[in-house]
Amino acid sequence: MEALIFDLVKDSIGSLLQATAGFISQKVGLVRGLEADLKNLRKELVKVHGLLLGAESKLGSRSPEVENLVVREWVKEVAQLAYRAEDVMDEYAYELLKHKFDSEDMAETRPLALRLGSISKVQLFSSDSPVFFRQRMSQEVKSLRESIAEIYANAKDLGINPSLVAAGASLPSSSD
After folding, report:
1. Residue among 91, 174, 105 nearest 134 (CA)
2. 117-136 as b/e: b if 16+ CB within 10 A
3. How many helices (H) and strands (E) does the chain have?
4. Can you tell me the distance from the alpha carbon of 50 to that of 78, in angstroms, rounded to the nearest whole number?
5. pLDDT (tens digit, 9 = 90+) per residue, 150-166?
6. Which of 12, 90, 107, 156 is deepest in the core (most CB within 10 A)?
7. Residue 88 to residue 138: CA distance in whole angstroms
8. Other residues' Cβ atoms within 10 Å of the Cβ of residue 74
9. What is the DSSP letter of 61?
C-alpha cells in the first residue's frame, strides 16, 4: 500500500515537472511574465521529488512505527500539494488553449484595423484579461512555492534528506 501511495505521488510530481517544462517552452503572450515563476516552481518540484525518494528509503528502513506514521502524514501533505499544483497547471493549460483559439478566431474573423482597437477598458480589467490571468496565476505559483518551502522544512525536521537516485529511480528529465 505504501509503495502504491509513493508511486502515485512521485508520478504526480513527475507529471507536474513535465507540464511546467512544457509551459515554459511555450512563448505565448499569456506566459510572458510567468516564465520565471514557472522555472522556479519547477526547481522546487524537483526538490520535492528528491525528498519523496528520500522518504521512501526512510520508510523502507527499520524505523519505529511512530516515525513511519509521521512520515506517512508528511507524504499525504506532499500529495495534497501535488493535487493543488495539478489543478493550477490544468487551469493554466486551459487558459493557454483558450488564448490560442481566441487568437486564431480573431485572426480569421476580424480585419487588422478592427483587431488593433479591439481591447476595451472593460475587457482589460475583466477576469478574462490576460493581464488579470497572469497576476492570478503568479499568486497561485507563489502560494505553491511557499507550501513547498514548508514541506521542505517539515522534511528536514523529520530527518528526510533528498535523494537524487534511490532504488533505481531517477528524477524526470527536464527540457529547460
Report:
1. 91
2. eeeeeeeeeeeeebeebbee
3. 6, 2
4. 12
5. 998 888 888 888 764 43
6. 12
7. 10
8. 20
9. S
What whole-number distance in Å separates Cα of residue 154 and Cα of residue 116?
51
- Percent of all residues in the chain with a pLDDT value above 70, rounded to a whole number: 55
Amino acid at 136: R
Identify the H or E element spanning 154: helix 130-158
8-state DSSP, 173: P
Q: What is the pLDDT of residue 174?
A: 46
Residue in the structure block whose three cell numbers are 528524477: 171
What's the half-sphere exposure (Cβ side, CA atoms, 13 Å) at 148? 24
Whether the per-residue pLDDT at 137 is higher than 70: the answer is: yes
3-state percent helix, strand, coil for the chain, nearest multiple of 5: 75, 0, 20
